[in-house]
Automatic annotation (TrEMBL):
Region (Disordered): 1-26
Listed name of the protein: Methyltransferase domain-containing protein
Coiled-coil regions, chain positions: none
A molecular function GO annotation: mRNA binding
InterPro entries: MnmM_MeTrfase (IPR010719), SAM-dependent_MTases_sf (IPR029063)
Biased composition (Polar residues): 1-24
Amino acid sequence: MKQPIKQNGFISEPNNLHSSTSLPKDSPSLGMEDALVSYLFGKKRATDIAHMVWKGIVQKGDTVIDATCGNGFDTLAMLNLVSDDSHKGYVYALDIQKDALDKTSLLLEESLDSNEKQLVKLFNICHSKMEEVVPTNAAVRLVAFNLGYLPGGDKEIITRSETTLLALEAAKRIIIPGGLISIVVYVGHPGGREELETVETFAARMSVEDWICCKLGMLNRPNSPIPIFLFRR
């Protein structure tokens, strides 16, 4: 039986399958450690960490879903990950608020050329209905959620546990092996904690054989956004 290894005062378990020494020098996972450390010391936001994780998962030409596009910054980040000269990558951006779609559309208009804009499909629908707009044969590599309310918008309009659970179940059905469900949960508003509990319960019940699920959080900042990642093996 292999014994735990002590390095720099920390205990680590040996793992032949995921040894860092097996990563190629050009691996997109390299550099994520720095981003994580920056988050732990308050220099990176939860969304910054999510974007760094996406870079280690998403490939050019992929289909990805921004399930709550908000002001469009995640949508734009996703497009930069999937677009290339082949023009095969697509971003499906959803939001139940038309105001969010308008803000996203304006950001894309200012940031993209005409060819790139064609790779983004905007839909004014609930995230729970993503399967109605994404092609059934699409190989979806990433589904991303920002749960809460629209920044700068009406704080009375928030994502709800009931529809978020339906959306997570839909994402689980369509995500391909090697894909990721990325969730940033904002908890500093009424209903935020309940929604977090819904997400945690959903993740905790996922198959250990098929999924790796993790959560980051600040213990002394209870209202800080919480990044959650569900990786399909």
